[in-house]
Write a structure and sequence with these properties.
Helix 4 runs parallel beside helix 5. The N terminus is likely disordered. The strands form three sheets. A seven-stranded mixed β-sheet has the order 2-8-7-6-5-3-4, sandwiched between helices. Strands 9-12-11 form a three-stranded antiparallel β-sheet, covered by helices on one side. It has a two-stranded parallel sheet with strand order 1-10. The protein is an alpha/beta fold. The protein is built from 13 helices and twelve strands. The chain folds into two domains: 117 residues, Alpha-Beta Complex (Aspartate Aminotransferase, domain 1), CATH 3.90.1150; 220 residues, Type I PLP-dependent aspartate aminotransferase-like (Major domain) (Aspartate Aminotransferase, domain 2). The structure holds pyridoxal-5'-phosphate.
């Protein structure tokens, strides 16, 4: 029996099993493992300031909630994530039909693209920004339109609005921006949203919202949540200390949230993650306290590194950005040789996560000793 051709327009498919266009895709680079580095450089321990985690451990009540939920892991989780969506809804002041949860906000970003774009559509974002964006776009066969960051390392919202075409389905606004820490303010965002057609979804990625101190940087849900074409991504990975459990959420209008819930991988918000998130949300005073510690250290670090690198932008997140250009990789290597893992972005800059005061001191010592600043 002859099998019918399965390629487009009757063309035979290539003999390879996977999509050739994926070859050009950069792999997502996770932060290095500190235990491996410590062994490699012969130190008792290494410090990881590379993945934007908060260093103070799980929030009170989380470990107990995880242990309790662990007793039920032979059962599937609540697929509708009902209790947690209700609690998140109260937390941000919207109705639960406007919430979708996912396996980290990175997964929700992927689901949003899947729910809005067809192959060949366009997604606009600033660059450099969160390194998952190009990967998410490419895997969905969506064209990335990258608008270069301003000289001050922030989004150029006017140019981003101008980059919207008839093919654009989504604009991603990373606020504050990873990895540069810069944030866009209210007037700029108002103007941008007024310029973008209502048929284009504006996704405001607020993974670092809890660290924002500039009163001019709006809370995307409070300021723009009522707009039909705005969706806001938040995560419990950073300020809420649940990076390892993978849980993020999205706030959008009910139709957009419902479409995203349809494309979410079934059961991808695990029972343990749901229980942990419910417990974490009861500890918001402790979250605030920890964020204040991080913010104070962020400002201390910024001031210290600016003595050597005055162009370090003001950060509204839990990391700082050192625009070192070609010195980025040697600087990161020199820090690693001294047991401190930071995150270089080849030829561009280095992102340093704010750690505990002692970790930050270790970073500063390594940075000064590196000879690369
Ligand atoms: C801007 C931004 N969005 C989303 C995420 C994803 O976070 P998670 O998938 O852990 O919720 C990150 C993580 O680094 C980020 O920097």
């Amino acid at each position: 029996m002859t099998l019918p051709p399965s390629g487009p327009a009757g063309q035979p498919r290539s003999s390879r099993l996977t999509r050739p266009d994926l070859d050009a895709l950069p792999a997502y680079v996770p932060g290095r493992n500190p235990a491996d580095l410590a062994r490699e450089v012969g130190l008792p321990e290494a410090i990881k300031l590379a993945s934007n985690e908060v260093p103070y451990g799980p929030l009170p009540g989380v470990v107990e909630a995880v242990a309790e939920a662990a007793a039920g892991v032979h059962r599937y989780p609540d697929m509708g994530v009902v209790a947690l969506r209700e609690k998140l809804a109260q937390h941000v002041g919207v109705s639960a039909d406007r919430i979708a949860t996912g396996c980290g906000s990175v997964a929700l970003c992927e689901h949003l693209i899947r729910a809005t774009c067809l192959p060949g559509d366009e997604v606009v974002y600033s660059w450099r920004s969160f390194e998952a964006y190009p990967i998410i776009a490419a895997t969905a066969a969506v064209t990335s339109i990258r608008v270069p960051n301003t000289e001050a390392h922030g989004h150029d919202l006017a140019k981003m609005a101008a980059a919207v075409t008839e093919r654009t389905r989504v604009v991603l606004v990373c606020n504050p921006n990873n990895p540069t820490g810069t944030a866009v303010g209210r007037a700029e965002l108002d103007e941008f949203l007024a310029a973008v057609p209502e048929t284009v979804l504006v996704v405001i990625d607020e993974a670092y919202r809890e660290f924002v101190t500039d009163p001019d940087v709006p809370d995307g849900i409070a300021a723009y949540g009522d707009r039909p074409n705005v969706a806001v991504l938040r995560t419990l990975s950073k300020a809420w200390g649940l990076a390892g459990l993978r849980i993020g959420y999205l706030v959008a209008q009910p139709d957009v949230a419902a479409a995203v819930r349809k494309v979410v991988t079934p059961f991808s918000t695990s029972a343990v993650a749901q229980a942990a998130a419910l417990a974490a949300l009861d500890a918001s005073a402790e979250v605030r306290r920890r964020c204040e510690l991080v913010i104070a250290e962020r400002d201390r670090l910024t001031e210290a590194v600016r003595k050597q690198v005055p162009e370090v932008p003001e950060s509204q997140a839990n990391f700082i950005w050192l625009p070192l250009g070609d010195r980025s990789a040697p600087f990161a290597a020199a820090c690693e040789a001294r047991g401190v893992i930071v995150r270089p972005f080849q030829g561009d800059g280095v992102r340093v996560t704010v750690g505990t005061p002692a970790e930050n001191d270790a970073f500063l010592a390594a940075a000064y000793a590196s000879g690369e600043l």
